Amino acid sequence: MAGSRFLWCILLGCLAVSSYAQQDSRRTLVSFTPAIVEAGSPVLVFVTAPEATAVEGEWLGRKLEFFKRKQKWIALGGVDVEAKPGASTAHITAQTAMGPVDLSQTIEVHPAHYRTGTLTVPPKFVEPGPEERKEIAADSDLKAKVFASSESEPLWQGSFRAPVHAPPTDSFGTRRMFNGKLASIHKGMDFRAPAGTVVRASNSGVVVLARPLYFEGNCVIIDHGLGLYTLSMHFSHIDVREGQHVAAGDRLGLSGATGRVTGPHLHWAVRWKGAYLDPAKLLRLNLNVVQ
Ligand SMILES: [Zn+2]
User: Fold this and answer.
1) 166: CA distance to ligand 1 center in Å?
2) Could you tell me which residues come within 8 angstroms of residue 191 by beta carbon, excluding any fewer than 6 positions away?
């Protein structure tokens, strides 16, 4: 009996050593794509920890939700457009039979050089009256509900694709003055789509909102799971209904000029757990590597 207990201790000791060895080589266990992270970057996190029973993470106040594909744990998250440049810590823990293994990493958030612009829109969008304020508040409540209940698994498959065949602008992150007064940050990408251009789902997911809103006009929001959403605004016509599952390329509606606009275009935004990410960067992110 004593002998077998002794052997068991040696075995446990070996496992503990191998766990420490993993901690030492942790740089090879966790990777971030892209390698250079800017304010507004979507980021794919890979953790190679086949022995882990779960991987948990938190970065800049947002929970990284990992799912397993083959031997890797994967999370798709990002850094908000308004994040402060500088060093940040991605807290990552792998749960193993031997206990938790800390895989935390220091990530530098580089400044992104977004522009400043001015816009003129009808005064009701800058100084809404009491009726409009009521409508805006109801819209906010509705959106808060929608954003609070994302699917608990990834619904996207492969890379995201542009929602429309129209020239994109690099307007994401632009600091805007509306009518010389109200400053805001443009948290989406505008496509120069003439009214009536077909808008398609950029990836698979569930339509969680498909209705007119005050600022957004006719708006379609797709939940891609684990807190990731795409938002399309200012449609002249909506073709989908709330609750509908869509695949990449499915028709959502027609672009237009409803809501707070200066003319017809498609405003397309990417939101992850309250952070607004650069849609152009998401379109460049190769998610086909996640199989
Ligand atoms: Zn826009």
Assistant:
1) 14
2) 162, 163, 164, 166, 167, 168, 169, 255, 265, 266, 268
